[in-house]
Amino acid sequence: MSTGSLLQQAERLARQAAAADVAARIRLQPELTRLVERMRIEGIHVPARLQRLEAELADEAIEARFDNMPV
User: Fold this and answer.
1) Considering its fold, how many domains does the chain have in total?
2) CB atoms near residue 57 (< 10 Å)
3) What range does the domain containing 12 cover?
4) Which residues contact 36 (CB under 8 A, 6 or more apart)?
């Protein structure tokens, strides 16, 4: 896949995440992580905003798992 195509897909996911509720953002996280990782493997520069979004979505997914744990 080309550099532009990977970046376009990541940008599309970022736009979807910006407009989504928490549950939808959590569902988008694995796909965004895969795209960002693929960009890194292929030596494509990952913009800082996409790196921040990836980290933010990962944090939300982790927090959601702990929200459902019995105390």
Assistant:
1) 1
2) 22
3) 3-67
4) 10, 46, 50, 51, 54
pTM for the predicted model, two decimal places: 0.82
Report, in angstroms and rounded to the nearest whole number, the Rg of the chain calculated over CA atoms: 13
Residue 38, judged by CB atoms within 10 A of its CB (0-12, 13-18, 19+), counts as middle
Return the amino acid letter for 24: A
Alpha-carbon separation of residue 63 from 15, 41, 57 (angstroms): 22, 28, 10
Sign of CA dihedral 59, 43, 16, 23: negative
Q: Give the model confidence (pLDDT) of 28-43 as tens digits.
A: 999 999 999 999 999 9
* Single-letter residue type at 30: P
